[in-house]
Amino acid sequence: MRVLVVEDQADLVEILLEGLRAEGMAVDAAFGGASALEQLAVNRYDVVVLDRDLPDVHGDQVCTELVAGGAHPRVLMLTAAGTLGDRVEGLGLGADDYLAKPFAFAELVARIRALARRSNPALPPVLAHGDLTVDTARRVATRALRRLDLTLKEFGVLEVLLGARGAVVTSEELLERVWDAHTDPFTNTVRVTMMRLRRKLGEPGVIDTVPGAGYRIGRP
């Protein structure tokens, strides 16, 4: 899952980046609305955590432009103003969810994951293929009832592949969905992670390489 945090408070951004990455998310940061719109124009995100009260381009405008652009990531709007009227107004702009500051980090994580599951088409919280199961809420992967000891990136790759429901996923898309903007696009990170993931999944193999295209979860 890839998340963009749009917030002008540097100390809060650092806390969110560290915490969300520890939860296995690929996270980028924008310290204002203008920077957010630039990143959204070139990167694909599953969820945008958007502070409403930004100093340059207001969060309301960022949300409005995202919605006007058609297909867009889910938007979780943050604000210090938590009245009913504020929530209604924020949701009316096209935000998918609304969270007032201060908030509990565990609730933020739960809301982000819930929004990510509302992708199109919507994905269930538990993804399965044959004897392979991934519980995205509890962050647990098992095969033949045996719990797999996966790194955060290995879990992320497996989650994206299962979520694709048999469709081919390119290395570029895996980099975009599982890693962040600081990852070198010419790195062999995906190949190395895939090799380690396949080893941990064991036999028979479930991840197919499609030459010249990418990877997919094969049919059971």
TrEMBL record:
<dbReference type="GO" id="GO:0032993">
    <property type="term" value="C:protein-DNA complex"/>
</dbReference>
<feature type="modified residue" description="4-aspartylphosphate">
    <location>
        <position position="51"/>
    </location>
</feature>
<dbReference type="GO" id="GO:0005829">
    <property type="term" value="C:cytosol"/>
</dbReference>
<keyword id="KW-0238">DNA-binding</keyword>
<dbReference type="GO" id="GO:0000976">
    <property type="term" value="F:transcription cis-regulatory region binding"/>
</dbReference>
<dbReference type="GO" id="GO:0000156">
    <property type="term" value="F:phosphorelay response regulator activity"/>
</dbReference>
<dbReference type="InterPro" id="IPR001867">
    <property type="entry name" value="OmpR/PhoB-type_DNA-bd"/>
</dbReference>
<dbReference type="InterPro" id="IPR001789">
    <property type="entry name" value="Sig_transdc_resp-reg_receiver"/>
</dbReference>
<dbReference type="InterPro" id="IPR039420">
    <property type="entry name" value="WalR-like"/>
</dbReference>
<dbReference type="InterPro" id="IPR036388">
    <property type="entry name" value="WH-like_DNA-bd_sf"/>
</dbReference>
<keyword id="KW-0597">Phosphoprotein</keyword>
<feature type="domain" description="Response regulatory">
    <location>
        <begin position="2"/>
        <end position="116"/>
    </location>
</feature>
<protein>
    <submittedName>
        <fullName>Response regulator transcription factor</fullName>
    </submittedName>
</protein>
<feature type="DNA-binding region" description="OmpR/PhoB-type">
    <location>
        <begin position="124"/>
        <end position="219"/>
    </location>
</feature>
<dbReference type="GO" id="GO:0006355">
    <property type="term" value="P:regulation of DNA-templated transcription"/>
</dbReference>
<feature type="domain" description="OmpR/PhoB-type">
    <location>
        <begin position="124"/>
        <end position="219"/>
    </location>
</feature>
<dbReference type="Pfam" id="PF00486">
    <property type="entry name" value="Trans_reg_C"/>
</dbReference>
<dbReference type="InterPro" id="IPR011006">
    <property type="entry name" value="CheY-like_superfamily"/>
</dbReference>
<dbReference type="Pfam" id="PF00072">
    <property type="entry name" value="Response_reg"/>
</dbReference>
